[in-house]
Structures are given as C-alpha cells and as structure tokens.
Design a protein that fits this description.
- It is found in: Cell membrane.
- It holds the Pfam family MFS_1.
- One of its GO terms (cellular component) is plasma membrane.
- InterPro entries: EmrB-like (IPR004638), MFS (IPR011701), MFS_dom (IPR020846), MFS_trans_sf (IPR036259).
- The structure is a single chain.
- The two termini are about 20 Å apart.
- The chain has 20 helices and no strands.
- It is globular and about 65 Å long.
- By secondary structure, it is mainly α.
- About 50% of the residues are buried.
- The longest helix is centred in the C-terminal third of the chain and has 36 residues.
- The protein has 3 domains: about 190 residues, Growth Hormone, Chain: A (Up-down Bundle); about 55 residues, no CATH class; about 210 residues, Growth Hormone, Chain: A (Up-down Bundle).
- Helix 2 runs antiparallel to helix 10, helix 4 runs antiparallel to helix 18 and helix 13 runs antiparallel to helix 19.
C-alpha cells in the first residue's frame, strides 16, 4: 500500500468527524449570534440592558456548570447515546427560546441551551480523540472549524437575521442544524462503548470545579469599569478559594477526581492548555477590538463591521490544509513559534491603524493574521492529547475547556478595560476631544497588549512536542 493511501482517512471515520462538527456548529455560533440581538431585545421586552444581558450570561454560566459532567457521561454511557442526548437538550432549549413569551422564559431557555452546549462542545473533541487513532491530526483540522470560525461568522449570521426577520429566528435557525446533527448521529455515528464504567462520579469535585469556573465568570459578568470592585470581589475570592479546595480534594481523590492532577504530568498538555488560554484571549480580544474599531472609528453598522472581519475567517479556512502538513513537517512547537510571527506581526500592524487607514490594507492584515491564528490554534489543540491514554481524554478535555472559558472571559474583559482606561487618559490627561480618531488611538493601545499576550505564548510553547513526537 502506498504512503498516500495509508495516510488517507477512512470514509467512515471522516463521516463521523463531520457529524460531530455539525453537532457542534449551532452551539458555537449561538453565543455570538445572540449578542447581536441584545440591543433589539431591550426595546422588545421594554426592560433594562442589565436584565437582557442575562440572556448571554445565563448561557455562559450554565456551560461552565455542564462541562465537568461531560467526562462522567462518556465514562459511563455509550458515546453515541451521550452525544445524542446532549444535542436533544440543546435543541429543546432552542425551541423553548424561540417560543418564549417573555424575558424570564427566554433566560430559562438559555439555561437549558447552555447546559446542552456545555456537554456538546467537550464531547465533540473527546469522541474524536478516542476514535481517530493515527488520523487524529488530520481530523482535528475538521473538528476545530466551528471553534475558530464561530466568533467571526456568528455575528454575520445574527446580523442578517436581525435585519431580515424577527429575533425568534436567532433560535429557530438552530433547529434544522441540530435536527440534521441528530439524523447524522443515527446514520453515521458508530457505537462508542463507555470508556471507564468503574470510575465513580466525583460529585464533590464536580461541584468544586464547576463552582470555581462559574464564580469567576460571574465576576466578569458583574464587572463594570474594573474587575476588582465591591460587586466582583466576593465572587473572585470564592472562585479562587474553591479552586484551592479542589486541588486539595483532587490530591487525595487521585485518578477518581473529575480533573485528575496526574494529567499535569504531561508536558504537552500543560503547554497546550496555557497556550490555548492565551490564544483564545488574543483571538476573541482581537475580534472585539476590531468590531469596536469598525463601528466607533469608521462608523460601520454592526452587520458591516461583521462583514469586515470576513478576510480573517478566509485566512483561517484556507490555512487548514497547509496546517496539517506543517504539523507533520515542523512539529507542534516549531509550527507555533513560526506562526506567532504572523499573529504578532498582524497585531503590531493594527497598532498603527486609525480612521483613515485603507480598508484594503486592513483586510490584508486580517487575512495574514487569520492564517497565523489557525496555525497557532491547531497545534495547540492537537498537542494537548499527545501521549495521553484514551481513558484520560474526557477529563483532559474538561480541563482545557474550563480553563479556556475562564481565561478567555477574564482576558477579553481586561483588554476592554485597558482600552476604556486609555480612552479616559486621552480625554482627561491629554485634553483631547472625543472623536473617531481618539477612539482609534485608544484601540491601538489594546492591540499592543494583545500583541504582548500573543508573544507570551512562546513560554508555554517550549512544553509542546517536537517534530518526531506523536
């Protein structure tokens, strides 16, 4: 058999990967689509922004609670059945959300949606890792698609819906996607036996670890101009205290903990998890600042601002085939280091843009940055599981998802606060008049710090595997 034929992914395995991706598509798009609808929902329900904001917050918080349950479900139940029920929960939440007669019903539906999404997203990665075998790297290029493209294309789809039909369609659009995923699960997803039925459910560990995540994320929800204030202090302190207690619990619980501490003995897992936290902050933070730039400095509508981000998505998508080859040729560590040149270079270029910069130049910067982001994310996502036994994969995925959610929430919030602080500095200390130019100057400050965070990925990058390690 030729080398080319040996490397070809079997059609059954490829079909399984696409079914898993289809199942993760709606949950990954949903969060960013809903954010576009929030201003409209304030007027629809005749209430305050802080009340409507719970539509997004409830989803995010419930995801944090649900993620630790995903590993236990895959350890004790057939993976095909567990993924099916996770999809059904998300689908029920979407239908109830679309039919909600008032805001309280909608927030309750978002809790159901968030729980379903918190199960679907880690299961998506876990099931792939467990089934892919030697084809893991190739299939990760497919499975990572909704995770990377969701933040870019979600606002576009949400904007198109809000410009064309009523807000209910933000949720109705999930129904055919989830229904197709359920059909695909019955049709193409093979039976996946439970991985470790003897492992007991770590209720205390799940409560501690889930409490740590939700407390810290809720603090971000409550934050206004600073993360450390009277509203956030109790939740930050509670979250950190729960994490310390969890570490003590996991030490004595050993392999039966919801996130066993022995996983941190895998260097590539530690390096990849830390790298993913930083990369998530950089990607989400860049998207946030660019959207703000296009709307506040250029006067774009929300939908046109989302359109302006398309070159970045195209760069990410086109880099996929190249990324797989480069992972094999260069190794994870070297590929991440090389790709950071594109990401840091793109962010450095964005520190020079203002309200007069050519859109062609900005599009070129975003396209190149998109290539860099893809070729940083993919090795990190793949290398998290290098050398890891299959039975450890569900718990490892719980760790990467929780830390990414918490780190991403705090990092993005901090970047937004840095921009706000710089804007205040320019208006007060420098005595500038508020204008699109001043807003652009403040955003340049944010891009600078995102570049610093991107460069910091080099540090955990040294823990990643080299060329010859698989």
């Amino acid at each position: 058999m030729s080398e080319k034929k040996d490397n070809k992914v079997p059609s059954a395995l490829m079909a399984m990967a696409w079914v898993l991706v289809l199942g993760g598509l709606a949950p990954m798009l949903d969060g960013t689509m809903v954010n576009i609808a929030i201003p409209h929902l304030v007027s629809t329900f005749h209430t305050s922004l802080s009340h409507v904001q719970w539509i997004a917050s409830a989803y995010l918080l419930t995801m944090g609670i649900a993620i630790p349950f995903s590993g236990w479900l895959l350890n004790h139940f057939n993976g095909r059945l567990a993924y099916l029920w996770a999809q059904i929960i998300f689908l029920i939440g979407s239908i109830v959300a679309a039919l909600s007669p008032d805001l309280n019903w909608l927030i309750g539906a978002r809790v159901v949606q968030g729980f379903g999404a918190g199960l679907v997203i880690p299961m998506l990665t876990t099931l792939l890792v467990q089934q892919a075998g030697v084809y893991f790297r190739k299939l990760m290029l497919i499975v990572a698609l909704p995770m990377m493209l969701g933040p870019i294309f979600g606002p576009i789809i949400g904007g198109l819906i809000m410009n064309s039909v009523s807000w209910e369609w933000i949720f109705w659009v999930n129904v055919p996607v989830s229904a197709l995923a359920i059909i695909g699960i019955f049709w193409k997803l093979p039976s996946m036996p439970a991985q470790n039925t003897k492992k007991p459910f770590d209720l205390i560990g799940t409560l501690l670890f889930g409490g740590f995540a939700t407390s810290l994320i809720y603090a971000v929800v409550k934050a206004n101009k600073t993360l450390w204030n009277q509203d956030t202090k109790p939740f930050i302190i509670l979250g950190l205290a729960l994490f310390v207690v969890y570490l003590i619990w996991a030490y004595f619980r050993k392999g039966n903990a919801v996130l066993p501490l022995h996983l941190f003995g895998f260097k590539s897992y530690v390096g990849a998890t830390l790298g993913l936290i930083l990369a998530g902050v950089v990607m989400n933070g860049t998207s946030l600042l660019l959207t703000t730039y296009f709307q506040s400095a250029r006067g774009f509508s929300a939908l046109n601002a989302a359109y302006a981000l398309i070159p970045q998505g195209i760069g990410m998508f086109l880099a996929r085939p190249l990324t797989g080859k480069l992972m094999d040729k260069l190794g994870m560590k070297n590929l991440v280091f090389c790709s950071l040149v594109l990401v840091v270079g793109g962010l450095a270029a964005l520190t020079k843009v203002d309200e007069t910069t050519s859109m062609w130049l900005i599009s070129a910067i975003l396209f190149i940055s998109g290539i860099g982001i893809n070729t940083v994310f993919m090795p990190l996502m793949t290398d998290a599981y290098t050398g890891m036994p299959k039975q450890d994969v569900p718990e490892a995925t719980i760790g990467t998802r929780i830390f990414q959610n918490v780190g991403g929430a705090y990092g993005t919030s901090l970047v937004a606060m840095l921009v706000a602080s710089q804007l205040t500095h320019l208006l007060t200390t420098k005595h500038m008049t508020f204008s699109p130019h001043v807003y652009a100057l403040a955003l340049q400050h944010g891009f600078f710090w995102l570049g610093v965070l991107a460069l910091a990925i080099v540090i955990p990058g040294f823990l990643l595997s080299g060329k010859d390690k698989h």
